[in-house]
Give the backbone structure.
Amino acid sequence: MIKHLIIIVALGIMMPAAHTQVVTNYKRVAEQFYAKGDYYSAAQYYEKFLGGKIPPNSGYSAYVVQKQGTGVASHREGRSLNSELLFRMGECYFHLNDYIHAQQWYKLLMDKDSTSFPQVPYLYAVCLRAGGKFVEASKELEAFIQQHGVADQLGKRAQKELEDCIFVQQQMATSTAVVKVEKLNANINKEGANYAASWLNNSTLVFTSTRSDFNNTFYNASYQTGSGFGKVERMNVSFPRSTQWGTPTFTPDGNRMYYTGWTVAKGGKKLSGIYMSQRIDDRWSQPVLIDGKMEDENGYSSRQPQVTADGKYLLFASDRPDGIGGFDIWYAELDANGRPGQVMNMGPGINTLEDEEAPFYHAPSNTLVFASKGRTGMGGFDLFASNGDFTGSWSPATNLGFPVNSEKDDSYFISRGKNLLQDAMISSDRNSLCCYELYSVQRSYTQVYSGVVMDCETKAPLNGATVLVKDARGNQVAQLKTDEQGKYSIMADAGLALQIGGSLDGYQNGLLTSPASRVDTVYAPALCLAKKPDPFKGKTKTIGNEVSYQIVFELKTEIAPASYPYLDLIAAYLKDNPDVVLEIDVHTDGIGSVKSNQFLSQGRANACAEYLMKAGISPDQIMPKGLGECCPLEKETNPDGSDNPAAREKNRRVVFKIIKFN
């Protein structure tokens, strides 16, 4: 009895020690995974160390992680948590894009220790933004920037996040009637992650999914116009299970596939490369690495390939050491065997110091679409577009905006429509805790533009004004007349920024830009036309339709630039009134001989006529006459015989006289 009692007591002493050892081992294993950047596994063992629940599926997935544990609430009354552990828990979930749980751990750390990890308020704000709490996120970021500054990389990222918060609120305040983004059906978006779609042919969509065993595998989905997606089957591939596979793309004939292979290299570094396989009957050949250095810690990753629609180029993302920063977009021309030639960086117009990924080239619109973290957006990865081709330059990248982009990650754009956002798809985790799902993107390509043309001064509507509408490239979209209320209305492609010009006899032409919008009906700003200046209004009138003007001359017969504006008004008047013939009478003062004054005045009259003809006026509308010292307006001497310079200046004049209407 005593022996048994001793044994029982001994066991009672040993069991807590054994339990402590097991728990300690959980923490040690978690820290080992954390050090390697395997946040999925680290989170599992940290949760087990803390007594949380562990998901039934273990192992690391290259592109997706399932929800971990039960959050911080279950640990508040349990083990005393130090700051380092709180930080690592937050980091695990943050890197797994599980911002809800990351936010909770960061908040617990901020309440416990506000100084040991100065970056945590920034990370906490990012989690708030990703959770749609833009106002709260902005306040946290403003406080962080005020305290931390923006001189270093972290401060610059905080400033960008603040800009993102402002941008996302502006975007979401805009109506989304033109663009529809809808989650694909449950056949496609089953459990796990479903993302990176590519069309094998017109009736087969291939995408990456973790639905079976939380490892990335390719799946086929049948498609029929009118009935949508039907049966989904695992693709007939037999690649080594030691490597994760994803992001397939196909040559136009469907006989060659490029995709990403992800593995753990020597030393524990996770690397990815681009592989190629040939189609042999109904199977695919073993993968052949064509880009990426995956042997050891000194390697680099290449991933997310896309073949252009003509099969000529391969685009992909890579953190090659000669890039601009992070992952860049690269491209290479493919040879006859499907191998890439010289690899070229897309350059600073596309790539930033942050990550750019998942490129896609839409040939009908000459548009490159890619995901980026380096530009102002709605948060996380946003989709951007740039126009150009592989032989020239690319336009500045523009954000595709809401609802294509969201406050979460949006990537893997594809489109097989004539227009960019027609029959398109994206991958997004906007409605998921952590995982990408597939969404269709469809844009209405008709939009009503309405406006009014009015008099700038009186604000009265102008009936019969001509409205000429062009797109940003200068292509004519429409030409029409305003109605009695000065109104016009046109139908055009949706979402265009339009140049709207107006013209009417007696008015100067007007122009305005109607910015791109997503609403069904765009009400353009009022286009006001100013009346053309009357070159005869306010000038010294003599007889009938005559006006006198002091044209300034240099070197006797050369018109001074100060007189150009008035002669331009005369030219505009004659262009608008082609039935008018204008007599140009030039007078001199009485100094000099009669003959020399006659010669001088005719030379000046001819100079005025030549100026108007160079402005496009027909010679038939102009009659230049030199009248010399004829017809002075005032006597050029005073009663005492002295000279009167003011009178001489008045007598040196040009008289414009409307003498005939054709």
Notes: Residues 571 and 612 are 6 Å apart (CA to CA). Confidence is low (pLDDT under 50) at residues 1-20, 54-70. The first strand starts at residue 179 and ends at 183. Residues 179-192+241-443 form a domain with the Neuraminidase fold (CATH 2.120.10).
